[in-house]
Amino acid sequence: MIRFAKAHAYGNDFLYVDEAQVAGAALPALARQMCDRHAGVGADGLIVYVPTSGGARMRLFNADGGRAEVSGNGVRGLAAWLLADDDQVAGTVTIETEAGPKEVVRLERAASRQTFRTEMGSPADLRQVMLQADGAGDAVEAVVLNFGNPQCVLLGPLPSDDRFRRLGSALERHPMFPDRTNVEFAFVERPDLVRIVIWERGVGPTTSSGTGSCAALVAAAAFGGAARDATVVAPGGPQRVEWRDAGVYLTGWAEVVCEGEWLLA
Fold first, then answer.
1. Which residues are CB-neighbours of 110 under 8 A, at least 6 positions away?
2. 111: closest CA among 259, 255, 13, 250?
3. CA atoms within 13 A on the CB side of 83
4. Which end of the chain has fewer CB within 10 Å, C or N?
């Protein structure tokens, strides 16, 4: 039996398990089982964590069992779980990820939803490239960068559902990205408003992404005329992204939805 919690941010959902409960387990296989939408609990990813004096240390497995370095929404969901029984409005935790430590500051609490501002670090290797999307029949101009995890952003009008699925799947596995990549399609509606749809590595279409929202804003500000402080609207809802000299900050909510017990062997 494994005790778990489930939390989500704008529909981007994760399962959280204390590492002590799964010592010696085959975690990629466990992630596939628990994250299955029909035969499991259902989630975009499994986060295995170790409590620390200042917060927690985490490892993230996508729904397909693949490893991911960090998730902005996953980090925030873990903070919501760690602070669930803390009645003070203000609270700060540090989540140690494979992309470095993330300081998460709680700004507000309204019923089950907790709003956080998270220090997400700085983008690296930001540049524009031309990519041939094999199998999709398209050569596309993209903005690529690393946000602790690989990101590929296509600026312009949002695609049709068919084009989104063809390009998202093809670009995730493009040879340029040996560890695969997250893919965002971003439209600058006005300087302070960017709309996105997301193809998440190891998951496929998802309603929201914290690192994807940050990457989309950075790409849009660098090459698409967006402001460096803007609202980024994904299908699951809006988040604020600030690209400051000191780094990028992400503000939005997360909520814990349940606790449970995994009974399968």
1. none
2. 255
3. 30
4. C
Residue type, 18: D
- Scored b (16 or more CB within 10 A) or e, 235-253 reads ebebbbbbbeeeebbbbbb
What single string gives the DSSP state of each residue in 193-237? Answer: EEEEEEEETTTEEES--HHHHHHHHHHHHHHS---SEEEEEETTE
What tens digit of pLDDT does each residue of 185-208 get?
A: 999 999 999 999 999 999 999 999
Average pLDDT, rounded, for the chain = 96
Side chain identity, residue 50? V
Q: What is the pTM of this model?
A: 0.95
Say how far apart CA 142 and CA 135 lie, in whole Å: 17
Q: Is the pLDDT of residue 136 over 60?
A: no
CB-hemisphere CA count at 13 Å for 66?
17
Segments of 63-164 assigned E as strands? 67-68, 91-97, 100-110, 113-121, 124-133, 138-146, 150-155
What digits encode the pLDDT tens for the residues 18-29?
999 999 999 999
Backbone angles phi, psi at 202, to 5 degrees: 80, 0
User: Which candidate, 114, 82, 112, places its Cα nearest to that of 96?
Assistant: 82
Residue 34 to residues 98, 121, 129, 212: CA-CA distances in angstroms? 22, 30, 37, 24
